Amino acid sequence: MKPTKNNIAKLFMFLVGLIITSSCGSDTSSVSSDYYGIGSGGSEGGVTITNEVTSPKDMKVGDVMMLEFAYGEPAEINFEGTEPDSAYYLAIAELDTWGGLRSVAFGDEDLPVPAMDSVDGAVSGKAYDSEAVALDLDERFQEILRENERRIASDSRFARQDVDGGLGFKAAAVTPSISVGDTREFRVLNSLTNMGSYTTVTARARCVEKDVVIYVDTEVEGDKDLLTDEDIARLCNEFESAVSSIQGWFGEASDVDGDGKVSALLTPQVNRLGAMGGGIITGFFLASDLYPRSSSNQVSNEMEIVYALVPNPDGKYGSVTIPKDFAIENFLTAVLPHEFQHVVSYNQHVLKGGGNPEENWLNEGLSHLTEDLVGYGQENYSRANIFLRDPLSYPLVGSSSANLGRRGAAYLFLRFLYEQAEDKDAFLWGLYHSGKTGVENIEAAFAGSVENFDQFGEFLMRWAAALVISGRGISVDPRYTYRPRTWNDETKRWQGICLICDAEDGRGTLMTGPAIYEYSGSPVSLYPSGIGFYNISSPSTSISLNPSSSGSFGAVLVRYR
Predict the structure, then answer these.
(1) Would you give the DSSP letter of residue 60?
(2) How far apart are CA 530 and CA 413, in angstroms?
(3) Which of 116, 189, 212, 375 is the most exposed place for a label (fewest CB within 10 A)?
(4) In whole numbers, what is the pLDDT of the chain averaged over residues?
(5) What is the 3-state secondary structure (H, E, C) of 485-503?
(6) 81 vs 538: CA distance, rounded Å
(7) pLDDT above 80 for 78
(8) Cβ-based neighbours of 72, under 8 Å, separated by 6 or more
């Protein structure tokens, strides 16, 4: 989405209203000098074929070398025989998805090993800008919602009912036909931690389509220009199209109330939820709504429904002001398909599949990929950029909160695998019908469609290569790079991703690629599924890679000069 002067001015005022944080996010003095090669679309060009070789001396510019190593089985990268002016990027990854922080020592024949705290090139991933701090509340709240899904799925009080061919649960009654202008009451969460605490609101149906209904809280009806009929018609058409596409790609949502529709409720109660935590919650899906209302599930609306905020230009509905244009263009167009992915995922994995909900990191990553696939992926750039600014701080896989940086990593990883899949539709479909979750689900869905590229460790290492090669003019080999993003004339957004470019996302985000640390011989500490990047501009004779504890690791060497 190309920003206008008006949008930028409104965005500036929006950010002023958010929480102010440390200014150290702009500290980049120790990052490799080529870190900021920013253009409108990144640098294209380079070799057309990237060869995978077994020795640095055989590498041409654009070639890669991959090796695996483990505790007690160190690896060595021997630079003897390489050209004098050659230079390389080195990615180090932990291939396991379990355990804690592990260290890998670099044994460099020509360098003393400095102390751990002298790592060069550090960029603090904790130094979010004010916008990111406010939105990080949304990510933490989503983790609570996903935990609630896991609890419900295993709770005997929410026992499965054999209804509608085993595809759903027994609701109290079938929802009557809805017409534009009808009103009804909804129970909406009023706590960030108690999934049974609610406020009752009244909302009016502002649009009714074949697959969707959009309700707007009557509380905002006094603000005539806040959500006009034109605004709602546009959102409704976009959501209708997204719901149809998503069910075609992933499978059907449940239909517990028998109306054949998914509802979206736009309510200031969502804004107030964010204000409780000092930030923003853009929207959510609550699995409790798919189960009958009862003494143990009083919050249920007994229907397929997603919730979203309303524009808040004057701060009337919460402490964080959100300009109308920004709320619609950046938040609402993305959050409705994002949350609907969760609806479909829960149905396919739990209600229909009889299994467990998808793991949080993958569930959220798929929602962000969904935003991109339906043509409204503008919010993905800022999250991806947080990961790229400090990849060591944001491992891909894990059971802890899928914060902004980890969501960015998950989106980038899934986008890469989607582009690599020979049958993209089959890959997407398989992620909802394999009967598995997490890493096992990805491996099963990808189904070895590419030789020697069907295991998580192989995915992680080639993804690391793509992260450091893409946009730098090193190679355009599609096996090791992201495809160029494309402009969607219908949604007026970019689809796909660029790693070094002006994102044109309505936020002014500048994509700068992954932070690349100047190699100094310092040990690197890695979380499971974590990756670190290094610039080796003057190779020594050899570098050994020696883990200090058990685990499986990978190294990817890319020659760029």
Answers:
(1) P
(2) 12
(3) 116
(4) 86
(5) CEEECCCCEEECCCCEEEC
(6) 13
(7) yes
(8) none
Percentages (nearest 5) of helix, strand, coil residues in the chain: 35, 20, 45
Q: How far apart are CA 403 and CA 125, in angstroms?
A: 11
| Nearest by Cα to 482 from 463, 508, 501 | 463
CB atoms within 10 A of CB 211: 17
Tokens of 527: 């979380």
Check if the beta carbon of residue 54 is closer than 8 Å to that of residue 511.
no
**Cα separation, 132 vs 382, whole angstroms:** 8
CB atoms within 10 A of CB 167: 16
Identify the burial level of 387 via C-beta atoms within 10 angstroms of its C-beta, where 0-12 means exposed, 13-18 middle and 19 or more buried.
Answer: buried
The phi and psi torsions of 373 (rounded to 5 degrees) equal -65, -35
Tokens representing residue 358 in the block = 């998808």
Residue 539 near residue 88 (C-beta atoms within 8 A):
yes
Residue 438: both structure tokens together? 């997490």
Percent of the chain, pLDDT > 90? 74
Closest-CA residue to 420 (of 369, 464, 463): 463
Residue 253's closest CA among 214, 284, 211?
A: 211
Give the C-alpha separation, 163 to 146, whole Å.
24
Q: Is the pLDDT confidence value at 143 over 90?
A: no
- The strand ranges marked E within 166-249 are 183-189, 198-208, 212-217
- CA separation for the pair 238, 337 (Å, rounded): 9
CB atoms within 10 A of CB 195: 20
State the residue for tokens 């998914």: 262
List CB contacts of 43: < 8 A, sequence separation 6 or more: 37, 471, 472, 473, 500
Contact residues for 289 (Cβ-Cβ < 8 A; gap 6+):
299, 300, 301, 302, 303, 304, 305
Question: Of the candidates 541, 390, 394, 417, which has an alpha carbon nearest to the alpha carbon of residue 482?
Answer: 417
Residue 31 has pLDDT above 60, yes or no: no
Please state, in angstroms and as integers, the Cα–Cα distance from residue 154 to each residue in 193, 202, 357, 432, following that order.
Answer: 19, 32, 10, 19
Please report the pLDDT score of residue 46 as a whole number.
Answer: 85
Which residue has 């790229």 as its token pair? 388
Res 91 pLDDT > 60: yes
SS3 393: helix
Q: What is the pLDDT of residue 112?
A: 38
